[in-house]
Amino acid sequence: MNVTLNIIGAGHVGKVLGRLFAQAEGIAVQDVLTRSMASAQAAVAFIGTGTPVDRYAALRHADVTLLAVSDDQIGPACAALVAEGRQAGAIVFHCSGALASNVLLAATQAGASVASAHPIRSFADPAQVAATFDGTFCGVEGDALALAFLTPALIAIGARPVPIDPAAKTLYHAAAVFASNYLVTVLDAALRAYQAAGIAEPVARELAQPLVTEAVANVFRLGAAPALSGPIARGDSATVQRQQQAVQQWDAATGELYRALVAPTQDLARRKSQR
Fold it and tell me: Which end of the chain is more exposed for a tag (fewer CB within 10 A), N or C?
């Protein structure tokens, strides 16, 4: 590889990928565009190279352009990029987990090859993510030419590209929400229930931690159905009913969450019994 890379949008994801690509052989980070010159300069300082710019007209032609903007800005950013008339024959890709590469239609119509590459991890601490990126899975889809660049480029920065079906991109992203965001919501319900039972919040976290870590470890070691334990797995419907009533009386919204989880957990228990 011997390519130039422009980056549009330099939040946490853009900065991390920019730094990693800049360290890869054969990729030269060229221009970094954000909403203000100050933020562009800060991004370039984090990345370690590149020229900060604050308007599309200042972007030089690049072999590859990364759109690391928010999901609702990917289409407009792509359109603004294409309006400059320098994307024919180039590669344009975005990092959204929720949107497929077809959101880059304007670039396709301008002659570019398009793709998406979604790093599957939290970017809350950019410096920490950049230092520990090796082994990060990335869901990828798009045009063959774009993927011919992206796949080895991602491997070069330590990622593990995983091809995904663009038609199922929303479902793919929902899987990550279940695995991360909704898991936190369920754990919050557990911690609040412990506190309602008279246990201090710091102690509640200590009580829950071994249950959570062992359950999660068993899911990834054995699979979800074999890892299931508790009253539903034992067929103890009386206990489940008492718990649901108690939670409902304590907090109606959390009671509805408990109720909503009963049926899918019963389905999981049936799958366990059939193994």
Answer: C
* Residue ranges for the chain with pLDDT beneath 70: none
Residue 6 · residue 70 · CB < 8 Å = no
Cα–Cα dist 9/72, whole Å:
12
113-119 and 137-142 beta bridge pairing: antiparallel
Radius of gyration, alpha carbons of the chain: 23
Q: Do 65 and 8 touch, CB atoms closer than 8 A? A: yes
pLDDT 10s digits, 211-241: 999 999 999 999 999 999 999 999 999 999 9
Residues in the chain, total = 275
CA distance 90 to 146: 9
pLDDT of residue 88: 72
